[in-house]
Design brief:
Elements lengths: L2 H8 L4 H14 L2 H6 L2 H6 L8 H21 L12 H5 L1 H13 L8 H18 L10 H5 L3 H12 L6 H10 L12 H8 L4 H22 L4 H24 L3 H11 L5 H14 L3 H11 L7 H13 L5
């Protein structure tokens, strides 16, 4: 019956009858549901527990997503099993789309905003792993969601930093840059997205410190990895190095950024290392620094013809003769 009809019905009963009804209904509520909606606390503290339908819906959503993540982590969405049916495994993307759409409607500064952001991050992590390792029945996880990994990460950053650019919140964003990258996105695109979200000098200075800590942490892990993992871990470290160099140069600390690159970037081949630096300096439109690094290394490295031509072009732009 409808709530309005229920109210009319219970008007017929006296206090003793109402007590019997409440006790009987309480007995019939499954234990799991009592815990999900914290019914015991509601009964004990009714004046402090005026739970809205919206809050009840979120509790249900939270429980559903948490169970979904547990099933994903246990491989129940990628292999035949008796817990998750074949039909449900095949329709995993519809669940994720629903969760994503519902979670992003919850403001980050609302009562449930922090938990909604946490759940979005946990879904993001699984989709990132699933784009490289079989967690679902297909690999194209972000394509299935209909949102690119980079756009999803940007949404997370904005939610995490909504209530303030604290070191802890920045650290969450820095750590998320370590997730497996979607093969359909450029491996460095998320790093540029992070940089674009840094609004003040203080944000950037804090980020430099956090990124440096992350590089140290990853280099320690590198010593324990096998050959297969080494390549991907080195690429990740080098992406963090380039990000920090970008931030330092953005702060006007150009020489410090270049020194940081030389001291931290992982590449034994000096030719490749210098050419990578020149490419980054060109992207940053640091022509004078590009010329300086080229000239300091031209007697040590056999530069390609294209780089020699670029050197002549840059010198010409600077009004110098080669």
């Amino acid at each position: 019956m409808l709530v309005s009809e229920l109210k009319k019905e219970i008007e017929k009963y006296n206090k003793n009858d109402l007590e019997k009804i409440i006790v009987e209904l309480y007995k019939r509520i499954p234990k799991a549901k009592k815990e999900d909606y914290d019914k015991d606390d509601f009964i004990k503290n009714i004046d402090n527990n005026k739970i809205t339908k919206k809050e009840l819906d979120f509790k249900s959503l939270n429980a559903e997503i948490t169970y979904f993540l547990e099933c994903v982590d246990n491989g129940l969405y990628c292999t035949p099993n008796r817990v998750i049916s074949k039909k449900e495994r095949s329709s995993w993307r519809f669940k994720v789309k629903k969760y994503y759409k519902e979670l992003i409607t919850i403001p980050p500064n609302s009562v449930n905003g922090g938990l909604a952001t946490f759940l979005l991050i946990e879904l993001f992590k699984r989709l990132s792993v699933g784009s490289n390792t079989l967690l679902f029945i297909n690999w194209d996880t972000f394509k299935a969601l209909g949102v690119s990994q980079d756009d999803y990460y940007d949404l997370i950053i904005k939610r995490v930093l909504y209530n303030g650019y604290t070191k802890d919140s920045l650290k969450v964003c820095v750590n998320l840059l370590s997730v497996d990258k979607d093969p359909y996105d450029l491996s460095f695109s998320m790093f540029f997205t992070f940089l674009a979200n840094l609004k003040t000098r203080f944000n950037k200075e804090d980020s430099v410190e956090l990124i440096n800590d992350k590089i140290i942490e990853l280099k320690a892990k590198l010593k324990k990895k096998n050959d297969y993992d080494t390549y991907y871990l080195k690429e990740l470290i080098n992406n963090y190095v380039i990000l920090n160099m970008n931030i330092l140069t953005n702060l006007g600390l150009i020489e410090k950024g270049i020194d940081f690159f030389y001291n931290t970037y992982l590449e034994d081949n000096k030719n490749i290392k210098v050419c990578t630096l020149l490419s980054e300096l060109e992207d940053l439109n640091l022509v004078n620094e590009w010329i300086k690094e080229y000239e300091q290394n031209e007697n040590k490295i056999n530069f390609s013809d294209s780089l020699k031509e670029k050197y002549q072009e840059f010198k010409s732009l600077n009004g110098s003769n080669v």
